[in-house]
Write a structure and sequence with these properties.
With 181 residues, the protein is mostly helical. It has two domains: 7-75, no CATH class; 89-179, no CATH class. It contains nine helices and four strands, in the order E-H-H-H-H-E-H-H-H-H-E-E-H. The strands form two sheets. It has a two-stranded antiparallel sheet. Strand 3 and strand 4 (164-167) form a beta hairpin. The protein is globular, with a radius of gyration of 17 Å. The protein starts with a strand and ends with a helix.
């Protein structure tokens, strides 16, 4: 893994929200929260991370949406003091990234939490909790045709430690479908 630069929390929050507002699964919820607050979607789609007021709002929105800094939801048990970095991983390093410990991803990967195992199961037609695999195949096909996806958000406990995907599970699975047979 090659660290490119350090990021602050505002950059991570903006990237996380920007990716998930475009998601079929999470986008409507974020839009509803923006509407609740009388805010424009451009705060997410075109974030100005130098604007303190916008950063404060995005942080509150992220906390409401995902439980960040509230010890709930995706961030239950998440440490408070985290360093964020932009990094480049090789395909081999990416293949070692694990899914979060969540029932759907555990089942799809056969318990390993490895995307390569999930990709194998997807290719074999395994569907978990009656959720179609069509989205994985669509993303993999888009990737084969040259699509560029937003960066993943990965976490680890220390430099060189095992990495776990925090945001980008579907994209990580599509990468595995295309690059790891």
């Amino acid at each position: 893994m090659h660290l490119v630069d350090s990021l602050d929390e505002c950059d991570m929050v903006a990237a996380f929200l920007r990716t998930e507002i475009a998601s079929e699964r999470f986008g409507r919820e974020i839009v509803a929260l923006l509407e609740r607050d009388g805010r424009d979607r451009s705060l997410i789609d075109e974030p100005d991370t130098r604007n303190v007021e916008e950063n404060c709002y995005r942080l509150q929105l992220f906390s409401d949406f995902r439980g960040y800094k509230q010890n709930r939801g995706l961030f239950e048990g998440f440490p408070g003091n985290v360093s964020w970095y932009r990094a480049i991983l090789t395909r081999e390093e990416l293949a070692g990234v694990r899914y979060i410990d969540y029932s759907y991803w555990n089942e799809l990967s056969g318990g390993s939490r490895l995307p390569a195992d999930a990709a194998k199961n997807i290719r074999e037609g395994v569907e978990v909790f009656e959720v179609s695999n069509d989205g994985f195949f669509r993303m993999a096909e888009a990737l084969r045709k040259g699509a560029l996806f937003p960066e993943l958000i990965l976490v680890g406990t220390a430099p060189g430690s095992e990495l776990v995907v925090l945001e980008g599970h579907v994209r990580l699975t599509a990468y595995s479908l295309v690059y790891h047979h």
